[in-house]
Amino acid sequence: MNDMIMQSLDALLWPGNAGRHVHWVMDGARDPAIAGLVRASGLEHACLFSGPLHPRLEAAAPYLVRLPPDAPATAQLLRRGWGQSWGILASAGAGVPFDTLRLHLKKFLRVKTEDGRTLAFRYYDPRVLNVFLPTCTSEEFRDFLGPMAALLAETDGGAGVRAFDLEDDAMRVKDHPLQPEDAPC
Predict the structure, then answer these.
(1) Is residue 70, in this structure, part of any structural domain at all?
(2) Where in the sequence is the domain holding 94, given as residue range(s)?
């Protein structure tokens, strides 16, 4: 990620209005280094899977990571993983406890098909979230959003962000380019 994209992403995630925390729901299956990077970061984090896990499953699991705006580890993770479909970002009020957010996100890890089969739902892959959320009704979106203020997913290989939030009790979708089209890369 170049400096211009990083500055644009910082401005979008932490616009100066206090009272929000940003979290990254990181998909360990996207890169074998993610689980180790999360553990070594020193940032508040938790696996979305519960209980003892086989090392291979632990490495491929989804992780919730709180991203403080001024932490060097936040910038390091974003620089390394942005544009690689490593996960989605969730913005929540500072009053939302980390464990509350984790428990809410865990609810969506499994889905039932029309024929009753249970499948893993990797909604935390931005390529999945960008396709899934627009199919939701307003009620389904409100349920999915839960205690979060917004969900954000990279687009165009990391050159943009799609933000999903509520406006007048309905889903609002807004695309944000992370650098001007005429800016050098």
Answers:
(1) yes
(2) 3-13+24-167
Q: Does residue 79 contact residue 109 with C-beta atoms inside 8 Å?
A: no
How confident is the model over 89-108, as pLDDT tens digits? Answer: 999 999 999 999 999 999 99
Tokens of 93: 């009020």
Query: How many helices (H) does the chain have, and how many strands (E)?
Result: 7, 9
**Domain membership flag for residue 29:** yes
pTM for the whole structure: 0.93
- Give the contacts of 138 (CB within 8 A, at least 6 positions apart): 169, 170, 171
* Assigned domain for 182 exists: no
**What is the rounded distance in angstroms from the CA atom of residue 71 to the CA atom of residue 139?**
36
Residues of the chain with pLDDT below 70 are 17-18, 180-185
